[in-house]
Every structure is written in structure tokens, then in C-alpha cells.
Amino acid sequence: MGSLIIPGDELHINKDSSVIQGPGVYCEPKSQRFIPVNAGIEMITDSKKGQTVYVDFNSRRYVPALGDLVVGTISGSFSDSYRVSLANFSTPVTLSYMAFPNASKKNRPTLKVGDLVYARVSNAEKELEAEIECLDSTTGKDVGYGLLDGGFVVDISLAYARELLFNSEFPLLHIIAKYTQFEVAIGVNGKVWIKCDDAKSTLACYRSIVECQSTPVGEYKRLIAANFKEITNAME
Amino acid sequence: MASSIEIHPITFPPEVLARIAPDLSIQRHLSLGVRPCLRQFEEFRNIEISDGGLSRSTDLFHNSEENNILGSNVLRSGKTIVITSITGGFVEELLPVHGIDEGEEELRNMTMQHDRISQFGAVYPVVEVERGRMGAPTDEEMNLSQKIYNCILGSGVIPKSSLNVSVGRRTTNPDKSVSITYPDEEGPELDQQFLPKRKWSYVLYAKIQVFSRDGPLFELCWNSLIYALKNTKLPRAFVDEKTTDLKIPVRVRGRSAAIRETYDIICDSHKSIPLVLNSKNVGFASNFGVIDLDPEARLPEKEDEMQVDQEDSILLADLQGEAEESSVLSTLSIISDEKGNLKHLGIIGGGSKVTTETIRRSILLSSKRSEDLSTKN
Amino acid sequence: MIEAQVSVLDQVDGSAQVTCGTTSVICSVTGPIEPKARQELPSQLALEVVVRPSKGVPNTREKLMEDQIRGVLTPVLVRYLYPRQLCQVCFQILESGEPEQEHSVKELNCCINAAYLALIDAGIALKSSFSSVCMAVLPQSSEIVVNPVTQQLQQSNSTHLVAIQVGQGGQKAESVLLAESNGSFDQQLFLDVLSTGEKECIKVALELRKIVENKIQKDFVWRG
What we know:
The complex is a heterotrimer. In chain A, the strands form four sheets. In chain A, strands 7-8-9-11-10 form a five-stranded mixed β-barrel. In chain A, strands 1-5-6-2 form a four-stranded mixed beta sheet, with no helix packed on it. In chain A, strands 13-15-14 form a three-stranded antiparallel beta sheet, with helices on one face. Chain A has helices at 158-166, 171-177, 199-212, 220-235, and strands at 4-5, 19-21, 25-27, 34-36, 40-46, 51-56, 69-77, 81-85, 93-96, 116-123, 131-133, 146-148, 152-155, 182-187, 191-196. Chain A folds into three domains: 3-56, CATH 2.40.50.100; 68-148, CATH 2.40.50.140; 152-234, Ribosomal Protein S8, Chain: A, domain 1 (2-Layer Sandwich), CATH 3.30.1370.10. Chain A is built from four helices and 15 strands. The termini of chain A are far apart. By secondary structure, chain B is of the alpha+beta class. Chain B folds into three domains: 14-41 and 284-374, GHMP Kinase, N-terminal domain (Ribosomal Protein S5, domain 2); 47-164 and 199-232, GHMP Kinase, N-terminal domain (Ribosomal Protein S5, domain 2), CATH 3.30.230.70; 165-196 and 236-270, no CATH class. Chain B has nine helices and 15 strands. Chain C has one domain (2-220): GHMP Kinase, N-terminal domain (Ribosomal Protein S5, domain 2). Chain C has four helices and nine strands. In chain C, the strands form two sheets. Chain C has a five-stranded mixed beta sheet with strand order 1-2-3-5-4, with helices on one face. In chain C, β1 (2-6) and β2 (14-20) form a beta hairpin. In chain C, α1 packs across α2 (105-122) and α2 (105-122) packs parallel to α4 (187-219). The interface between A and C is large, with 40 and 43 residues.
């Protein structure tokens, strides 16, 4: 685990080696100096190519980045694309009709305004409107993206969402799985879609996911157990 | 068949470049040692001032009955014209002329001393930057007005005492002729008893109109306002004898407060007294900008020329024009008198580093400028 | 000297409540979001600052404060990272702590510090940290009082606000972002105020840093 860093601090990088910059690091155009621009934990990894540096920080507003897996809401449809909202009040992103598996001029996707989709960010230039796609663009095959039918969306912070998605060891979902069956789709835009068989499990899942945001991992078991117990008792 | 595309470098005449890339244009100018307006770095624009003959006292047509402007100034700097006109009114103060008892008066004076700003009066300014269209005031106009108000109040140019109205009395003599007597003119002859028991004070408004805006305005507006205040003449005011005689019981407290003496305070159309300013608090404003020189924007120099060592940031006095305003982001605004007593100093960092040296230099320049401006009249 | 809570509001991206003495401000930051057409800047982040007074409706006094706050925030934001986006920064003064008709330094000071914490909380890119401090100079002794109380503010010959950019791990004052002085003073006094201000700002920056550290620990509590 790296050290804590805030804007105005120096990055602990090697001056000589080439640097691969990640989120939270900015290269000042005039001085060509790398500076941290967010407050978080400095993460540096050395590799053959050079040093990779990024700042791991928590926030609530999602800014699209290439390759991110996201949960979005269809907010409008045009002649050749959908408009998808990834966060309230943010600039919407585009989802082309051609970015679906087996798409053709005649074979149009059938999503409606208000539907949820799981997708991957395929283009994220800061000057342009970001684009997302519902297929693996290298193979053109369906890899599990697309419409999320039913279910429930939980809003969580971005760092927590990344942890849930990338850390398969993270105990939260494993513990919940002991109590109920569910389908889940985690978007790094801070949206977790979850679908259980019944409302009470959904509610317990929702509570558990939200509360675990501000709880140390060690207490997860107790907390989730309590949530499920409470819900079951309340129903009876 | 592959066709080759020829790329032509695009060249712009200076005025076009100044419009599309003000940043580059100003850097080029500065690297040559001159500003886009062709002034030296630390050179101010000359200003021309006059009172414009707008006010009651200088009105050429002598219809001072209708003219309600008490002081005025027309300031011209470059192509910008600032017209300030000062109008006024009376407000009746809650407190009577003399305190109900001495203890209370003393207490009031003591609290006054503890509160510096409450000893000063203010002008309520409204700045209008004319752009050829009507509408709600812009943010710039609101900011200017508020800033001028803050500075007038904070610098203490106008002591509250000079806004007190010393009320005269109009008497109808036995031979039907009318005469007006003022307490400070007639001396003890005028019986205190017959003077109104209420206290009035002048309240001043300033309307500052700006034509042909060309750069930051605060300093121009402020200087124009100061000149206008200097020639402001407050009209004398009196009440009619008939109303002073009325002995209506006054009860300030309680619901009966509604029944009050209704004095008609009337402005004297002939007599006026100059507004007394706190001359040691009068200062003039000047602004400065700090810009970092970008070595890459310099014109390529010939091989044999020596690289001239230039400072990387320069101080510009009296910003003017679109290019300077949009690319010089670090600014200093100073109100100072000729001795270097400061009344307001505002620095907006804006990206360039404002050093102590820069601050010293600009305070020096600003007091020199103030010396120059104070001689104009 | 300064008390603060971060992430106090649910519906915005970043928020902070800051109390300096008797003055208290809540600040919210939302962004980067989609701007209105008239706010949009083609190459950089647009900034919208709103100040709401503790009582009554906002007037020109608050407009001027908005302008001054914008002057502080504009150079520290990495604006070119968010072209055609908007960042909204709203302040609600909870306790003015000063005679509002005559002064605004204390509110302004509190607002600037609150804005720093709220921007950090929102994760908006900043070039460096910043902090601010307000001061008053007493009439007879020419003593510079940091964070004056109302009475000192009213007695004072001049009031000052200094906001600086803090670099090198919060150790060094890099440059002045805003200095706003009103009243009667001279060059030497101003330079004294400026250097006192820089020292005090660094102290404030260290306090703010601790608050940010706590916030980050809280953010990643599930790791522990």
C-alpha cells in the first residue's frame, strides 16, 4: 500500500525512468512535470517499461475512461444511436446501434428509454462525447453486455465500486451469496445492478452493499447476517 | 493514385492574430519590449477630467430647481469615457438632534469609537457599462458597484459628520418678506427651541456611466467618483417656521409612534455647502498586471544576436485592451495617496507569481500616479 | 482554529462544512457536469460560484464574494482536463460571525477553506492545495490579529484576507492567490500582513491536510 498524497505534494517517482501516468496524475504542459491532482493513496509500480504511477482516490462523479465497465440508463434514442446516462447531470454518452452483437442496418436493438444497459466504454476522449458498446469489439461477439432486465440499482462511491469489480477476493458478494441467490452487474460508474428472486432479499442486499461502504471488512459477516435476519423477521 | 497534399503555413496580419490568439500576440509584443497599445510597461494612460457642467452649482442655465445633480465628473482615459453624477436625498435618523440624556450620548460615542467604519459615510454607487443594449445589470457592473461601495466605506473618505444636515428655518417677516436663517450663520440669535427636534442626514448616490469599455474599469470609476465627490456641493435645507412651531407631542416608543411631527424639509435652491471630505483618506486607484514571459513565443532571433537576458515576469501598469485583459490574469489593484498610505490593495493571483518586489514596485508607482492625479482639477 | 466535516451532503459530489471561530459555511461541489450552453467553454472547465447569505436574499455583496472566490479557484483547478464541462461550487453561509454590512473577510476566508475541502472531496483535479486566513490590524498597537473576533474587526484600522497556494507537502507558500485589504495601512504593514498570512496559511493547510487524511482513511475503511 502506498503513501498518502494530496495536490501540491511531490510524486515519489524516479526522475530518469519513463513514467506511465494513471488517474490522479497530471503532466503540466509547460514544465512537463508530473503532479498529483487528487487526494488519495499514491500507487507506484515498477516494470520493465518504466514506472506506472496513479493516485487511488474516492469520488462520486464518474468521468468515462476507456475500457471501463459501466451500468447506464437509456435516456434517449436517435436514428442511429442511443443516448445513455452514466451519472446524473453528467454529459450523456453515445451507444451506437451498431455496437450490439449481430447488429446490421435491419437488425435494430430494441432498447427503450429508461432501460438499463451494461456496457464497456469504447471511446473516451475528453474533448469528445464518450462512446460505449455492448459487444467485444475485437471479436464482435456477445460477452454478457446488454439489457439488464428487472433488478435494482444501488448507488455507491467509485472507489468501492472498483474494489467490488476488480477484487474477486472481496468478501461482500461471497457473504451475500450464502444468504440468497442473485445476479449482479457492477459498473465502475458507481452503480451496482442487483437482481434477487424476491423483494426482501433485494432489500437486504441493498442495505448490505450500502452499509459495507463505511464498515471495515472484518465486520461484514456480522453486518450482513444482521441485515438478512432483520428482513426475514420483519416479514413474518 | 496517391495525391500529395501541400501544407501552406498560415500567416495573419497583426490585428487578426491579436483577435484569434491574444495570448500569442501579447507575448510577441512584450518580447519586443512594447505593449500592444504601444505604451511602455510601466506607463500609465493620461486622463482628462472635467466636471462636465452637469451639477446644480455649475449649471450654465441656472435652472438649479430642476437639476438634482450635486457633483459630477467626466473622466476620459484613452477612448474610455466615465461620467459620474452624484445625486442625493435626505434620511431622517431615528435619534433626535440631542440625546435624551447625556449618559446615553456618551455611550453612543464610545461605541462609535470602537467601530471604525460606523464613523464613515458612504456613497451608494451604481455602475453602468454601456453596451448598446438594456437589461439586467451584468456581474461586472454589480461587482464594480459593490467594490466601490466597500472601498468608499472602508477608506473613510466621507466622515459621517459631513453628511449631517444643519437645518435652517424659513420665517415670514411682518412685512410679508420671507427670510431663511441657518443655525451656523446667525449664531446664537436663532432660538434652539424653534429648531426641529429631528435629525436628518444627506445620503449620496452616484451613477457612474462607462462608455467604450476598454480594459478593467474599477480604477477609472473610482478616480472619477473621487473627483466628483471633491466638487460635490450639498444644498442647504430648511423647514418652514409654521411647522417648527407646532407642538405636537412626540412619543417615540409604542404604537403611537405613528403620530409624529411632519416636517417638510425643503432644499434651498441658492445656497449650498461643499461636501467636506477626509482629505487624508483620499486616495487614487491604479491597477497593474503581472505576466510571465513565454520564451517559446519570442520571435526567432538571428544567430549572431546575443540572447538578451530578460526577466521572466513583467509588471504592466494600467491594463488596456482586450488582449491585455484576457491574457494578463494576475492583477493588482491599489488605492493609495501620494505619500503611499494605502486604502485598498487587492491581488488576484491568477497563475503568475506575485513577488514582494512586484508589490513594492507597484505601490511605489501607484503613489506616484496618485501624486500626479491629485494635482489635476 | 478550524473545524471541518467532509462529505456532509448526500446529493452532491463533494461537500464540506467549515467553522472558523464564529463563522460557519457549508460548501457543495458538483462536477464535472454538463453545462448550460451559455456557460460552456470550448477548451476548459467552466466554473459557477454561488454564495448564499446567512439571512435574506443574495445581493451585490455576495456577487462580489463570488467573484473573489472565482479568482482563487480558477488558477488552482486543472481546467484543461475537463473541456466543455461545468463545475458548480455553492456556498451557504450558516453563521456570518461578522457585521455583514461592513465586512465580508471572515465569510470569505471560511468559504475558501471550505471550497478546498469540498473540491478534494469531489475529486476535481487541483494543481495544488490552498488555504486562506483573515486578519485585522488593531489601531494603537498595530498588532496583527489572526482570525479576529467581531469586536476586533470593528475596531481595526484595516482588514486583510490572504489566500495562498501551498506546495511541497504543505510546507511552502508558493504564490498568493488572493489578497484583499481594506482600511488604512501602508506598504510595510501590508508586507508584514502578507508574511504573517503566509505563515498562518501554512498552519491552516496542515490542519486541512489532517482533515483530508481522515477523509481518505474513512473512504477506504473497507480495506482495513
